[in-house]
Design goal:
With 507 residues, the protein is α+β, with helices and mostly antiparallel strands. Helix content is 40%, strand content 20%. It is built from 18 helices and 24 strands. The strands form 8 sheets. It has a 7-stranded mixed sheet, with helices on both faces. The protein has a 5-stranded mixed sheet with strand order 3-2-1-5-15, with helices on both faces. Helix 1 crosses helix 6, helix 11 crosses helix 12 and helix 13 packs across helix 14. The mean pLDDT is 95.
């Protein structure tokens, strides 16, 4: 039997999964690492922590599975997008990586748009300047840490730092690179005009590839560290959402998926490079050659529920442990007892600012309607609904722009919640389904590797042989009508509070 490895470098940890060539999970490992927030709105991680987590996870998977490393045909990479990794001439990180949810670079976004022009930036890169994207982070380092910028020899994305450690190669893929805001999106190539504005030499950037292309092989040093066989092929891979799309079979236009992980994402495949002129959703390159994606990203989806659990529900954690239940499953059970609308309690999930559909680094999480009779169960239900409303609002933008969504695959940690799946289904008004495999981005990365090494001729063939839908939810019209008035109020709240959020941030 032959095997594949998918590596998914997430925000909370690295997941390493060993698959059979038919996409069946053989063994997996998860290794966590720290998130540093030295100031409000800042978010950083150490690239060295990422590599240690991945290397240890690879060692665990190989030792636990007992699979001979020589039987592994290829390795695929997936990871959190938009992060900024700066390396010196020796390939060592110059600072902790500034990751996707960091919001410090709003002033640099203004600088970028003033220098290049808003319309021109949108025309080239497909997106307005956003603190979440890599370009503004580069400007921030230039403006605030010039002593480090002077030493910078290479700019990488998070998953591509793992590639560098595995292979010694400086490479990236089009899906992840398009989230840096340094690309000419229609040409799937680095933009000389943007690089000139940012004073970035092209040689500082990695070589760019389509997602299933080979980008090197495991080097001797990495083989000794991980137990992998030297020479094992490593493909370009994809950003986490582009890889997750492959992992749930979204490889044709008209198909869409929803991730409820740390962030919340809706992702749909398109034949053409169409952009939202208002910047509410993003246009990026797909991991499918010659295709593009419409993608929304809300900053704090699963993160909102995790925050509530860790800060306000510690007794729930203890009770769940006593009942030998997963804490989130126990919280689900509590929320099920509360009716739609959480008895007039609404939550705005802006714990980390927002990207879609409101690109605003200043907005913050808010409860509206909190009353003395509300319980933990109401808070849980309100947070879950608030995250779902944010996804509904993004889907409305997709539909406004003519992106067809007839059904929605769902993945990520939030997809394990039957209540959350049904909630989203009722709001969207279309079927929502899980797939039999739960590995999402890791499976997508492995399937990209499978195509890259010739196990399958195309992504369509790979997904057709591996991915199958399961657990389909169908919308309940009565529930949809119950949510609608709360959703209308939810949409009004951001506009009502926008100025107040800004004033609060300046205090």
């Amino acid at each position: 039997m032959e095997y594949l490895i998918g590596i998914d470098l997430g925000t909370s940890g690295a997941k390493i999964v060993l698959f059979s060539s038919r996409g069946k999970t053989v063994c997996s490992a998860m290794r966590s690492y720290s998130l540093y927030q030295p100031k409000n709105g800042w978010a950083e991680q150490a690239p060295e922590d990422w590599w240690n987590a991945v290397a240890d996870g690879l060692s665990d998977v190989l030792s636990q599975s007992g699979v001979d490393a020589s039987l592994i045909r290829g390795i695929g990479l997936s990871g959190q997008m938009h992060g900024l990794v700066l390396l010196d001439h020796l390939g060592c990180p110059l600072r902790r990586a500034i990751i996707w949810c960091d919001q410090r670079s709003q002033e640099e976004c203004v600088q970028l748009e003033e220098t290049l022009g808003q319309d021109r930036l949108l025309d080239i890169t497909g997106n307005p300047a956003l603190p979440g994207f890599t370009a503004s982070k580069i400007l921030w380092v230039q403006n605030h840490e010039p002593h480090l910028w002077e030493k910078c020899a290479h700019i990488l994305l998070p998953k591509d730092y793992i590639r560098y450690q595995l292979t010694g190669e400086l490479a990236t893929d089009v899906s992840d690179a398009s989230g840096m805001q340094l690309m000419e999106l229609r040409k799937r190539a680095w933009s000389a005009e943007v690089l000139n504005v940012l004073q970035i030499e092209k040689g500082m950037l990695a070589s760019m590839h389509e997602s299933q292309e080979l980008t090197g092989a495991v080097c001797k040093k990495a083989a000794a560290r991980t137990g992998l066989k030297e020479g094992t092929p490593v493909v370009a891979g994809a950003g986490d959402n582009a890889a997750a799309a492959v992992g749930v079979g979204i490889v044709k236009p008209g198909q869409a998926f929803n991730t409820i992980g740390t962030s919340g994402v809706i992702y749909a495949l398109m034949d053409d490079c169409s952009c939202d002129s208002k910047g509410r959703i993003h246009t990026l390159c797909a991991s499918v050659p010659g295709k593009w994606t419409a993608m929304s990203c809300t900053q704090a989806a699963g993160l909102s529920l995790q925050w509530l659990r860790n800060t306000c529900c510690k007794d729930v954690l203890e009770t769940a442990a006593e009942h030998e239940m997963d804490s989130y499953a126990y919280m689900d059970k509590m929320a099920e007892a509360v009716p739609p609308g959480a008895q007039n309690l609404i939550f705005l999930p802006y714990l980390m600012g927002e990207r879609s559909p409101h690109p605003d680094p200043y907005c913050r999480g808010t409860f509206l309607g909190l009353a003395a009779f509300h319980t933990q169960a109401h808070l849980i239900r309100a947070v879950m609904e608030g995250v779902a409303y944010s996804q509904w609002e993004c889907l409305d933008v997709f539909r406004e722009l003519g992106v067809q969504v007839d059904s929605m695959a769902i993945c990520g940690g939030g997809a394990r919640s039957k209540l959350w799946r049904q909630m989203l289904c009722d709001m969207y008004g279309c079927p929502v389904y899980r797939t039999q495999a739960e590995e999402g981005p890791a499976l997508g990365a492995a399937l990209l590797a499978a195509v890259g090494v010739g196990l399958y001729s195309s992504l369509e063939e790979a997904c057709g042989n591996v991915v199958a839908p399961a657990e389909v939810c169908h919308p309940d019209e009565k529930a949809h009508l119950a949510y609608e008035p709360y959703y209308k109020l939810y949409k009004n709240l951001y506009q009502s509070l926008k100025k107040d959020f800004f004033q609060l941030a300046k205090l």
